[in-house]
């Protein structure tokens, strides 16, 4: 992990604990999901990377805000991210998350819908402390994210081009990352041009992050990534490698791909065939190339933003981390 | 309907249309659910009573705000109410709502979760225009509502006392009604004591409204209420009449009640038996008495609030309407 992700971790975990305090059984469920409490009620740290809230604090501090002014925004963003995970897991029928059973598996679907809804509402209670502009920014990002998720669900029924894929991830996963940078800027009272530069940077980082994530969903080491190799093929996820394979394949392979992606469940021999096809078509190299190009763009945008020497080092390290991350 | 519910209806429908404008298929789904658009994309008015947003505008105007200042808050509250209906319908497996198929029936569960999430996010984008205090108020009310829904879900597995029932409805349905009054006060810049008086009034109105709703869910005329007579018994809903019957019943009847409420599906002969038991125990009269008492309390709280002569007439009419409503 990079320094940017480590520096404020304890502060963020404390902020999450304060925001999610409560004695109801629903509040216990959300604390366990977020990864700050175990089933026995003890404090733990299973909260994942905390990338988005770390970025809020990083940007806010770089642009001159105090960390305590930015904390509610950082916490709120992480809560919105977590609400989306709870609801996505129901929709995608995912059974594990961060090495733990998902909320709907443990508590049933109805309670999982509720748990997501609670996280969502608490997020907006927290962000209200940062003023209306921050609220509007988080709401707009959430709208984008939900629309992106809806696009992704609609992709389950058809193949998509790389452009359609990109438009989807820019909303589904890009929106909250852009929001992280913008919230930092808003809390610090930055001007519009700084906000624009940060948005461009965030958009590029978001794409690189998601494509890398998609690659790991197929070729990642199961033990490290937390899900078995090939799992995104098994669940027929419309990821960058699939869009890319579909674009590059000849008519016969394309036909076979369509056949496999319309069968349920996908046979293990077909999973292997798809992965081999992708490798034969050079998809891993194409994906790595796109990630590299996108991060180079990001480095360009970074040049337009005033950062401290340490700040620039932190962002460079983050870019390197995203370029090479294995989990 | 009372004048209070009719006066600003067109304005509210326009506000909802503006807030929900958009070309995505998800935004079409939410417009249809809210009842402002038909399947062919034409404008319709199937939006229900619009009680909560009408109250926001009423209170705001009575306390001196301009209607256009209060409109985003009113629209936001109606959107939060609608998000909760979409998610509740999934959880309760309800197949119709306002005479139309529910979102999950038409578009599947995954898309229905998303549709609710979109309404939720748009609500907070709208309320942001009314300032941080309004955002915090709506977020707190939403937290209460979601916690109340979670309590209600937990009641599915056991019988509850009337006190437990009351604590649940104060949150599940009372929270948004209180929020309606408070948002009106916030937009108008009212002081804390006015807010407190309005909260008390809203709490009483909310209880009366919900108990009346529970009565209609069992004895209401199917054609008027939009669901068949006895339907809340059939779906084993833990409503005021059930809590009340359970409190009043002797050991043998209580045993039989427990048996019936743990069977699925509930047999039609048992539905009839439960309704007859309730009538034998005097539940309808007890419910009517509680509604009457609660509305008398409401009338008392109303005396603490400064209203115009027309405003007082409107509130009195609303109380009469709630006391006698058949749908």
Whole-number tally of structural domains of chain A? 2
Greatest interface and its residue counts?
A: A-B, 41 and 41 residues
CATH superfamily of the largest domain in chain A: Farnesyl Diphosphate Synthase
Separation, N- and C-terminal Cα atoms of chain A: 10 Å
Mean pLDDT of chain A: 92
Question: Could you say what the CATH topology of the largest domain in chain A is called?
Answer: Farnesyl Diphosphate Synthase
Strand content of chain A: under 5%
Rg of chain A, alpha carbons: 20 Å
Describe this structure in words.
The structure is a homodimer of 327-residue chains. Chain A has 2 domains: 1-190, Farnesyl Diphosphate Synthase; 193-327, Farnesyl Diphosphate Synthase (Orthogonal Bundle). Chain A has 327 residues and is mainly alpha-helical. In chain A, a hairpin with a 2-residue loop joins strand 1 (96-97) and strand 2. Chain A has helices at 3-6, 9-19, 25-34, 51-62, 67-92, 103-107, 109-127, 132-155, 162-172, 174-187, 192-219, 222-225, 231-234, 240-248, 251-262, 268-280, 283-302, 309-324; strands at residues 96-97, 100-101. A two-stranded antiparallel ribbon of chain A has the order 1-2. The N and C termini of chain A lie close together (10 Å). Chain A binds chain B through residues 24-26, 83-84, 87, 90-91, 109-111, 113-114, 116-118, 120-122, 124-125, 127-129, 131-133, 135-136, 138-140, 142-143, 146-147, 149-151, 153-154, and chain B through 24-27, 83-84, 87, 90-91, 109-111, 113-114, 116-118, 120-122, 124-125, 127-129, 131-133, 135-136, 138-140, 142-143, 146-147, 149-150, 153-154.
């Amino acid at each position: 992990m990079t320094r940017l992700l480590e520096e404020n971790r304890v502060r963020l975990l404390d902020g999450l604990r304060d925001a999610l305090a409560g004695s109801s059984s629903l509040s216990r469920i959300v604390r366990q999901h977020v990864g700050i409490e175990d089933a026995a009620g003890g404090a733990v740290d299973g909260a994942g990377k905390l990338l988005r809230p770390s970025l809020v604090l990083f940007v806010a501090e770089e642009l001159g805000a105090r960390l305590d002014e930015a904390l509610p925004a950082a916490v709120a963003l992480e809560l919105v991210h977590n609400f989306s995970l709870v609801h996505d897991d129901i929709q995608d029928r995912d059974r594990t998350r961060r090495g733990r059973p998902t909320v709907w598996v443990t508590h049933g679907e109805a309670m999982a819908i509720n748990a997501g809804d609670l996280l969502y509402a608490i997020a907006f209670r927290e962000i209200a402390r940062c003023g209306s502009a921050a609220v509007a920014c988080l709401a707009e990002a959430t709208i984008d994210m939900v629309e992106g998720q809806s696009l992704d669900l609609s992709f389950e029924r058809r193949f998509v081009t790389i452009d359609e894929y990109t438009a989807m991830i820019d909303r589904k996963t890009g929106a909250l990352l852009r929001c992280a940078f913008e919230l930092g800027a808003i809390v610090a009272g930055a001007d519009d041009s700084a906000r624009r530069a940060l948005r461009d940077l965030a958009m590029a980082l978001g794409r690189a992050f998601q494509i890398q994530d998609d690659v790991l969903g197929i070729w990642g080491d199961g033990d490290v990534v937390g899900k078995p190799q090939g799992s995104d093929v098994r669940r027929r996820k419309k990821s960058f490698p699939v869009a890319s394979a579909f674009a590059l394949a000849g008519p016969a392979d394309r036909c076979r791909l369509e056949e496999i992606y319309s069968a349920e469940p996908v046979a293990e021999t077909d999973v292997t065939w798809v992965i081999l096809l992708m490798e034969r078509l050079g998809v891993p190299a194409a994906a790595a190339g796109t990630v590299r190009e996108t991060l180079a763009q990001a480095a360009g945008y970074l040049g337009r933003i005033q950062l401290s020497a340490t700040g620039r080092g932190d962002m460079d390290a983050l870019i390197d981390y995203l370029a090479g991350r294995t989990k």
